[in-house]
## 1
Amino acid sequence: MSKKYRAAIFGCGMIGGLADSPGDRKIITHAHAFQQSDQCTLVACCDTKLDNLESFKQRWGGSVRSFSDYHDLISNEQFEIASVATDTATHAAILKELLALDGVKLIICEKPIVADFEQLREIEDILSKHQEKTVLVNFSRRYNPGFGKLAETVSSGALGRPEYFSGVFSKGLYHNGCHVLELLEWFFGPVAEVTVNANTLFDGDSYGCYYLEMERCAGVLANSRGDEFSIFEMDMLFQHGRIRIAESGHRLQIDKPEESELYEGYRMLSDVHRLEDSLPQSMAHVLQYGCDALEEKKSDAGDILAAHLALSGRLLRLRDRLAAGETKIRFDRT
Ligand SMILES: NC(=O)c1ccc[n+]([C@@H]2O[C@H](COP(=O)([O-])OP(=O)(O)OC[C@H]3O[C@@H](n4cnc5c(N)ncnc54)[C@H](O)[C@@H]3O)[C@@H](O)[C@H]2O)c1
């Protein structure tokens, strides 16, 4: 198959291309996703930091044309797919210019999509005028087959009604908890209320213990600074079983009850179905989803983007209200 899409990467840092290398089994950067794709060729990249630009070029090929100013990339190159992997505060300005380019069909933007409400409103407004473009926010689990299987299990009702969830994760509620909230909103609908049990502010983010009421389920989340280790785990209890996310999402399980061999009359969650770990190829799945959406093999990209924009608004509100010391934060239905 010929490589039909030309791609450009804006931001050549960790997620842009420095967190993995050609030949690695893991595909967790934008550059690696383009390199392994049989539909895309990376033609250009840009970064204001010349060290990163040089390291990126050494890793991903000297023929990729590089720029230190993204405006020069935009003026000089033709491409159909763009990855925005710069610092969060710069996403909105770059997105705005990319959306105005006729040739650009797919944009994969890192999360968080914006840094504040003003940028969110501006981007929402421009996006509403460019609905012909496919824009994905890289909440990578959303495009991952394993997590997709869990979402299907929830929505099919195969485990009955949801009862509670509990999750623990490292790093801030805004910066890393956004992945947890994205997952919870995908499975259980928008968050309606957050009640703070404990909260510590550090470096512009929140750490503590929170009770969340989602549209279809409620539960608790707790996070820590994660200076010594990373964690991302979740148990979701249903009428007829449990979903378990462990080992940072590498272990996904659907556990169903069966008669206990030890205790007569008791049923234990010993019927364990472990799903294949597709997280190491997360960026390849995001890109494949984007290419499929361009070819109309996926029809829900617009709905997912709308959900992610709405989530971004709730996350910004949560971040700001927690910083203001509020202990109960309600979210309007929008
Ligand atoms: N989806 C995920 O799980 C995930 C994981 C890590 C990072 N991220 C997000 O990805 C983004 C980048 O994170 P990172 O860890 O790769 O950071 P990084 O600092 O390693 O890389 C960002 C790069 O963007 C460059 N840059 C900044 N402004 C620029 C501009 N105007 N033009 C061109 N280049 C510019 C910087 O010089 C830097 O090289 C952030 O928004 C972050 O939140 C998402």
## 2
Amino acid sequence: MATLTPAAREIPSFPAPSYGTKGYLPPASISSLDELIAHLRDIFASPEVDIDLVQAVLRSYKSNPADWKKFAKFDEYRYTRNLVDEGNGKYNLMLLCWGEGHGSPIHDHADAHCFMKILQGGLSEVRFEWPEKPEGQVDEDENHSMKETSRCDLSLNGVCYMSDALGLHRVENPSHTQPAVSLHLYSPPFSACSMFDQRTGHETKCKVTFWSKYGEKVNNTSSPPPQPSNGVVSLSAD
Ligand SMILES: [Fe+2]
């Protein structure tokens, strides 16, 4: 059987912009996913991340399925996480592929910056406050439903930013007829986060995995435990 351990992608070089300079304006347009990746690598070479600049650069790229279709791998039952670029260790860039009606659990982002851009279809995002944890007492009824704070619908090429400081969220493809594809950047990369039960606020630690890397299906040799959503694996099955 062929090994499915892909090598890191080679990204063509583009004229280097000077990020990290106050007042630098992002390019008006970015013509390809590879060019976008080159800009992102340059931005994240700086020790400080300019959130507005990252969002502006993501907006400057207009989705072209020819750029990213080789990374777009769907599963019949759950959304998938597909690694596109490791960003020299500073971030993970990935495609999330959402079948009709697929959604994530409510989750945090492990203290990372989270950027999201719609490449195909549309997604709905619902945000929540962090659940309050009763301190110094037994939580007998565990009936602490989570408080919703906002809802928004993201359409093609829309961009948004999320972090733990802004709360928790759930993302879903509300369409029952059209799949959706989104581009996500997480910095720094993380391999574990938490998901939350909306009715009780109960937190479950999870590790996150990839369905594919660089366009190749990941060859998982062991059987993972039941997955609440694809690529999000419960570590505490109690
Ligand atoms: Fe998220």
